[in-house]
Design brief:
The protein is of the alpha/beta class. The protein contains 15 helices and 18 strands. The chain has a nine-stranded mixed beta sheet with strand order 3-2-1-4-7-9-8-10-11, with helices on both faces. Strands 13-14-12-15-18-17-16 form a seven-stranded mixed beta sheet. The longest helix is centred in the N-terminal third of the chain and has 17 residues. It is flat.
């Protein structure tokens, strides 16, 4: 940390130049001789990234910002708040503390939080920022969380860990593709191999993992999984949460949540309920598109039986009915349905402008646009999909406004 960044003069400069062009800033250089232009630019770039993701940090005076990569990798305040609503107690240790957003929110639910971070700079930044944020019940330790735990006899109510999602593959079969990790054993630290150690220090464990992790494989790799939470924000899955309780033998509960600006969509079930019969029907008056948290859960048939909807086709995860219902996703009214034929579509969409969606369809969006001469935008939503008779179908629709 460079303490000169925290002077009133520099902080005022940062606040007044948040929208400055970075190339212009780099050319002009730093107006402060004690601060390199790269340091100053990092504060500006990182603070800008916090406007939506970490508004509490952004609004708090004299916050010291880490490199932008740490901002990108950390939990958002929305997801951190959700995690803190799930667990509580006297003590929790965060084994992969990072910038400390999760620890900050755990401090609202626990009397004492221990924040472990191996990077000396990031640990110092988190410790300083906690004081600025008024979180006085967080103890920061500059150490590897697993090693710190192995050398301790301390007991905690909960252990929290967020393993790194971009570790090197251990062999050619490792489930890593373009940096996306699909196995916990390929993360750092390797949580499955350290479970015995973790359970020696707490009977309850919360694990945050990449949204790209295979859900069933994650449950198989871990022990005593009680709950899995699939957390989406604005219909984008941000993280998977595994709650482990020592010696748990209960069925695994799956909880999906989609946090929207003015509402929250939830759909919960037990893993052994996924196998359910479903009725198929060609599109009726209303079309239902589940949110992405539900799609990630694999509840493709269960969502239909729960809400008494018909599925359009086995591999088309869209649902339909003649009666409008509240639904954890997006609802559309079907205005017309036609075969994959551009001449007919021109009569329905004179401007050939629409929001294009493909579900279980052989052609890519760019191919469809070229073939159908479609442009993006407007109020219409056109689904290119396959019906129960395996025929390529085009559904022209409009969104139904939520009743809430």
């Amino acid at each position: 940390m460079n303490p000169d960044i925290l002077t009133s003069e520099v902080q005022e400069f940062i606040n007044e130049n948040l929208k400055i062009d970075s190339a212009k800033m780099a050319f002009k250089g730093s107006p402060f001789k004690e601060i390199a232009v790269q340091e100053l630019m990092n504060q500006l770039i990182a603070k800008n990234k916090c406007i939506e993701k970490l508004p509490t940090w952004f609004k708090t005076p004299f916050i010291y910002y880490p490199p932008k990569l740490n901002i990108e990798q950390t939990s958002s305040e929305k997801t951190a708040h959700y995690k803190s609503s799930l667990i509580s107690g006297k003590s929790i240790i965060d084994l992969s503390g990072g910038l400390g957003v999760d620890s900050f929110y755990f401090a609202k639910s626990f009397k004492q939080v221990t924040h472990c971070e191996i990077d000396i700079e990031l640990s110092a930044i988190a410790s300083y920022n906690f004081k600025q944020l008024g979180a006085s019940n967080i103890n920061c330790i500059n150490a590897d969380g697993i090693s710190n735990l192995a050398n301790s006899n301390e007991q905690f109510d909960w252990i929290y860990i967020d393993p790194s999602r971009r570790d090197e593959p251990t062999n050619k079969q490792s489930a890593i593709n373009n940096g996306r990790v699909f196995q916990l054993a390929a993360c750092f630290p390797d949580v499955p191999s350290h479970l015995s150690l973790l359970f020696e220090h707490a009977a309850q464990i919360l694990i945050k993992v990449s949204p790209f992790l295979d859900l069933k494989l994650g449950i198989k790799e871990l022990k005593f999984v009680k709950e899995v939470h699939i957390v989406a924000v604005d219909n984008e899955v941000k993280e998977l949460l595994f709650i482990l309780i020592k010696n748990n033998t209960d069925a695994v509960a799956v909880k999906t949540i989609n946090i929207l600006s003015s509402s929250v969509q939830t759909f919960n079930f037990y893993l052994d309920a996924l196998k359910s019969d479903v009725q198929y029907e060609n599109p009726l008056q209303y079309l239902y598109e589940p949110n992405k948290a539900i799609l990630k859960s694999g509840a493709f048939n269960l969502i239909a039986t729960t809400f008494k909807l018909n599925k359009i086709a086995n591999n088309t995860h869209l649902y339909t009915s003649n009666v409008l219902i509240d639904f954890p996703g997006t609802v559309y009214e079907i205005l017309d349905q036609i075969p994959y034929n551009n001449k007919k579509l021109k009569t329905i969409l004179p401007n050939l402008q629409a929001n294009i969606k493909i579900r279980n369809f052989p052609d890519a969006i760019n191919t469809i646009k070229k073939k159908m001469q479609l442009k993006d935008g407007g109020n219409f939503y056109v689904f290119f999909t396959t019906n129960k008779e395996e025929k390529l179908t085009v559904l022209v629709s409009k969104k139904v406004l939520s009743k809430k």
